[in-house]
Amino acid sequence: MTVTTDPKKPAEAAGVFLEAGAVVPSATAHAQSGKAHVEVPTRYDAILLSSFGGPEGQDDVIPFLRNVTRGRGIPDERLEEVAVHYRHFGGRSPINDQNRELKAALEARLAERGVDLPVVWGNRNWHPYLNDAMLEADAAGHAKLLAIATSAYSSYSSCRQYREDWADALEDAGLQQRMQIDKVRAFYNHEGFVTPFVEGLRAAVAEAHDAGFADSEIEVLFATHSIPIDDAARSGDPSVEWPADARGQTGGAYALQHHQVSEHVAAEAAPGIAWQLVYQSRSGPASQPWLEPDINDAIDELAGRKAVIIVPIGFISDHMEVMWDLDEEATETAENRGLWVRRTPTPGVHPAFVDGLVDLVLERVEGRPVAERSAVTALGVEPDVCRAGCCENTRRGFRPAIAGLQP
Questions:
Q1: Does any domain span residue 398?
Q2: According to the annotation, is 321 in a ligand binding site?
Q3: Which helix (H) or strand (E) holds 308?
Q4: 216 annotated to bind ligand
C-alpha cells in the first residue's frame, strides 16, 4: 500500500453522491432502503477496520493533534499540553500496534469460521488513512465494504464522525461512484464486547477479596470518555425521548447505553458491590458543560471505601486515554487517598470480542433476523442504518456522512 506523504487527513467532503432513488448514500442495495435493520443477505468484498489513529514517534505528535482538532483553531501551544501525554510514552501511541493485532486476530477468526473476507485498515487521524485503505481495497477490486469502527457506543465522536470521515475519504479517493460502504451496528451491548469486562471485573473482585477487602469496602467505577452535554443530548435517534441520568444530565443514548452495560457487568461480576458510571478525558473551555462526574472527583468523594476497581467500559483497547488518564492520573488519585486500586483489561484481542466482531459481520452477510442477534441490555439491537439526524454536532452542524439516513 502506498501511504500519502502529506500528514493531513482528507479534506471535508463537499457533497454526498447518491444513486438514483437511493435514500442512504454510498450504501449497498438493501441498506439504501433506509430500514433500521437489514435482514436480507448481503455480499461484501472486504471489511474496513476503522480507528482513531495515533502518532508513531515524537515528530508525529503535533501533526497528529492538528489532524484531531482540525477546524477548531487550537494553537500548537495548547496542543502541547496534550502532547505531553504522548511524549511520556516516547511519542508513540499504542493504538496502531493494537489495531495491527486486532486486524490479524480478526483475519484469523474470519478464516476459522469460513468467512472469506479480507480486512483493510484505515485511521481517521494518522497513517494509514482511510482514503489509503479505500484505495487499497479498490486496487484489489473490492467495491462493497462493511466497516467496523473501533468504537462501541452512539455519539458524534464515536459514530457519526466516523461516518463523516468515510464520506471525506471516499470523495478524496474519487470512489463515490463505485464503492459502497455499510457499517456494523453499535455493539456496546453485544455479548462479545461485554464478556471481557465481566471476566476482568470478576477477577479484580476476587483479587480484592484475597487482599482482605469486604464487598462493603469496594467501589467499582465504570469509566468512559466524557463528551459535551449538548453532544450527549443529541446522541442516538433524535426521535427518541432519552431520559436524564441520575445527576439530571440529559445524556441521550450515550449515557443510557453506558449505564445499562455497566449495570449488566456489575450484576454479572460484582453483585452487591457499589458502583457508579464516571467520565474522563474532558477537554475544551471550562464554560462548556461536559458529562460528569470526572473519575478523579469521584475517587476524591468516595466515603467508607478502602478499594476501588476501575473498569474502562467505554474503550476497546489500552490506548492513550486508558494508559494516561486511568493508569497514571486516576490511579495516582486513588493511591494518594490510600486506596487499593486495580484497573481491569479492555477487550483488546480477547477471543470473545474478536468472535463478536465476526458475529457482527455475519449478521449482515447472512441477513440475520433481529430476534437472533446478541444484545444483553434492555435497549436491544441497535440499527444497522443510522437514523436521520442522529448524533448531531451542534458546533459544526450536519456534514456529509454515509451509512445512515440524511442528514
A1: no
A2: yes
A3: strand 307-311
A4: no
